Amino acid sequence: MLRGVNLGGSSKVPYQPDGATYIRAGFFEHRNVSFVNRPFPLAEADEHFTRLKSWGFNFLRFLVTWEAIEHAGPGRYDLEYLDYLRAVVERAAEHGIRLFIDPHQDVWSRFSGGDGAPGWTFESVGMDMRHFQETGAAFVHQLHGDPLPQMIWSSNATKLAAATMFTLFFGGNDFAPRAHIEGEPAQEFLQRHYINSIVQVAKTLKGLPNVIGFDSMNEPAEGYIGMSDLNKRYTLINKGVIPTPFESMQLGAGVPLELHSWEEGIFGPIPVGKGVVNPNRLLAWENADRDVWRAEGVWDFDSQGKPRLLKPNHFSQVDGRTVDFNRDYYVPFNNRFAKAIRAVQPEALIFVEKGFRNPGPDWGSNDAPNIVYAPHWYDPITLALKFYTAWVNVDQARRRLIFGPWAIKRSFAGQLRKPKEHASQRMGNVPTLLGETGISYDLNHKRAFRTGDFSAQVKAYDRIFQAVEANLLNVTLWNYTADNTNERGDLWNDEDLSIFSRDQQTNPDDVNSGGRALQAVVRPYPLAAAGEPLRLSFDIRRKIFTFTFRHDSNITEPTLIFVPTYQYPAGCQVKVSDGKFEWIREEQIVKYWHTSEQSEHAIHIRSR
Questions:
Q1: pLDDT digits 0-9 by tens, 120-156
Q2: Active site residue: 67, 436, 469, 495, which one?
Q3: Per-residue pLDDT at 594
Q4: What is the distance between the alpha carbons of residues 559 and 430, in angstroms, rounded to a whole number?
Q5: Catalytic (active site) residue 70
Q6: Catalytic residue at 219?
């Protein structure tokens, strides 16, 4: 089984100049940046890889961004960054750590409140990034300042800046055929440059045996594609001002609007005020003629100067047919991406995620082979509201509250069962990896940082791990950030989800120092099973680990269990249903050789 982390949280922002999102100075100098030393300086690589390996994380979802590779302009690749990237991945190989490359993005770009795409992508379609904040086209930490409302960045997915770019990227040929960049259709130009930038990474890392594949895109958003009502609010989380798509288009064209502001509560969204957005009538475009959606006739001003929606079905119908984002745009993009990557690395696995508003894609026999379904899942209360309670949570799929520890435990397990069911039923029974899950460590107003008591974080993470183990899921946790601090977290949009922090490190000679909530995070698990895993559990209070599997008669290698010294400092007792075992303490591994006398086998480990 694969158990690893995302490396790393601060890889979303430049290293030089410091791109931490709370820093406004030099923000728009986007062509002259460097991501060398993300996720950490090469001189620190052995320290961090040694720590991760000792914690049982021998697998990484390794973050790169399109901006890191091609920030200087179309076709201008940062060769110094690519050389650095190979050096870091080579060092990971020396520590026995495998990885796949994650071309990371959130709501398109740093300049629309997230990360990923270079700033010049906005310029290429005629958008003016300097006015995104005032026009409501995006909510940007660098322009808003502190304090940043928790998770408000995710609301950008349906605002003008990100929604426009994602629509052009995935479906520009259908929804904006007039939009061209340097004489090329916008969709073709953007996809070609994105894919070619990741191909540069594939070429750079070619021949390294620890690189097993590439994610096609982190958390792809649909933009406006599939929206059947442009007067409806679409959002993942209700934070701040959430204009409808039509309102977003008006605001970007310099039309002031009075809109509600929202706050997310346990019982649903709450209006918390009202105010005028874009009172100074600024444009989110270089000029009115560059407005893509007005040029396409989606809307316009009438003879009295009043905005009118002219094509309410523009993003949901093409040639009289109802569009489907996954079928019509996302799967074809993944096939194109896979073909380009495998022209360089033929054996590469392709990790496929799900969209912002849609379930995972269906995958047919004519689509790219050798894929992995890699969706994300989070405990919504600890992530969005930053507090832990054992008694109330949310079932995200059913959109209802859950009450009581046992009900929450069952619900989490049920929610994490869905990805494997989807991969089995709709994607040809491909493997499943939970690409991201984790908790906000700055729970309860950062109380643990002041008291040293991380018990709430331990309980929150253990609850997630119980659901992961109940479903026998492969997982890469979000995240490990080498330069995390208590004050600024992962350096991006005030998120603080790193399992390591320099500010918690009191003894640099102790590999565990700096780890956060390790009682829950560092736990035994099967590295490799000689057959089909059936059941897996770990009780962090009693330190009892149980694993059951059905053997495969064609496998002669032993089952390997990671048994962390952190959990068993005084040693452990191992009991097996049959056969023999060997505990290699210095390697933190139990080797188990089963017999062929029974089909199912069990391993029990407890403290000595």
A1: 999 999 999 999 999 999 999 999 999 999 999 999 9
A2: 436
A3: 97
A4: 23
A5: no
A6: yes
